[in-house]
Amino acid sequence: MLLTFIHLFPSPSKFKTLFSAPLQRQQSRRSNRTTSLPLFLCQILRNISTDKTAGPPPPTASAEPSVSVDKFFSIPPSSPMAAVDPHSFTDSTHPLTTHISLSLYFDFPSSTILASTLISLPTTHSGPFTLDTRSLSITSVLDPTTLTPLPFTLTPPIPHPVFGQSLIITLSNHSQVIIISKTSASSSALQWLSPPQTFNKAFPFVYTQCQSIHARSIFPCQDTPAARIRYDAKLNIPRQLFAVMSARHVDRRAPVVGSGEARGACDDSLWCGDDRVVDDFLMEQPIPPYLFAFAVGELGFRDVGPRSRVYSEAAPAVLDAAAREFAGTEDMIRVGEKLFGPYDWERFDLLVLPPSFPYGGMENPRMVFLTPTVIKGDATGAQVVAHELAHSWTGNLITNKTNEHFWLNEGFTTYAERRIVEAVQGEDRAALNIGIGWKGLVDAVERFKDNMEFTKLKTNQEGVDPDEIYSEIPYEKGFQFLWRIERQIGRPAFDEFIKKYIATFKFQSIDTDTFLNFLKANVPGIENQIDLKLWTEGIGIPPDAMEPVSSIYTKIVSLANEFKLGRMPREDEVADWHGQEWELYLENLPKYVEASQVRDNSIL
Q1: What residues of the chain score a pLDDT lower than 70?
Q2: Where is the Aminopeptidase N-like N-terminal domain (predicted)?
Q3: Known catalytic residues?
């Protein structure tokens, strides 16, 4: 996942007010908006405080305050259990789900989904079996063979504000179970848009965002990346709309009367309505639940390569602009394969979502979700695509076992993204990327100065809402750690190590210790050359982290420093700048300045 809005808001709770429903819980990272420059810069500079009577600036220039422990929660004890994940009710003594079969009926007027979920286990199980739920109405739990009801309870009676409720089902030598449920209009994973909120303003739209722990608000599941699942899904939607998923599209057809394919989600009279159609999907590779994704709306597409399409709302202007922006997608896939091994997901399609999507991108396998702000007209938005593509190897293929090891997803992916960008767009562009990340890392450490636990790579997140502690640290400190290893052993050796790492652990979920043990086994003596414990368990930025070195990076940072002395860049100095150059410049400007420091002698 790549977060792409400037930290303009003092806390995640303030950011929540921007979005009308469920994705309000998400927090932003940095901006890649394209605007008219230098006019945009002029506006930014004029908005910088120049009031001499305003007094000193706030005590910290951090864009967000440190996280307070009183914002954290703990999972209420429902029964003695061995936890798999601090963010899940999943019990380690229970079998992990291997396959889920979904029948989903989309009711746009009520912004709800009627669902039937068939869960398959690798072995039969007797006794309690626990799943995660949040904001779900559970109608019944059934034996799939006899369709007789099975006993179940939801605990705690009052749902936990972050983790929801555990659904505890009593099984008796069962390897499968059916759960009939209904989502809430406030489901944290679903964003419902009315027709006026869409581009063409003719039809409604809905899309998902399940990371980190929101899949449980669509269907009951073991909502932890430790439980990798295959799935198939039948999406019953209005005939005028089209569905896409993080899965292979198998068929689009009329509902089959009397087939039982609704599997109890709703009556046949609803499922087989004349105005309904069913889109069938299949995900044959095991993925963590947070990568479950779909979007339903008035969609169109353009082919941009032999294994890539770009989808968006069916507006020719948007589709054509997106197709131009992402025309180089196949080149990036080939670079990724050269660096990291075969692309194992068959297709790499992209969906440009409506502007309410609060992230830069989400790495759903086979169908990456993107914000429309990445369409800049100069192909630089492809760097967001590079990040989400890199996840195809690091994050999707190998996944952090829990969010406490999130750097294994995002640190590796940030490293892989920059290698792809370097190969496709050159070393200067990659250096800019590293420079922006370095500034973000410094700011993130400042943000957590009163709770340095979350400046570690390997964190303790017991009782913590993972959405509340998103930051650049797992991305940029994780990148810096891998870059440090590369510098120590050399790029050719590190490239071979990365390929071996991916081939060894693909389609698995691992933790930091597993990675470190693999590193020490394959790079003998590395623990004597790099303080691995300091990097993974230490707070702050290690002394052997490195700011990037490049002429363009140095020039931009120098110009930002000169602004502090009252000098702004001349037109000729910024004539060839694009979004990233401006972003690096703006990120390094002071937050406050006296009016006397600004001389109106350049672009203003």
Answers
A1: 2-82, 593-604
A2: 200-244
A3: 388, 475
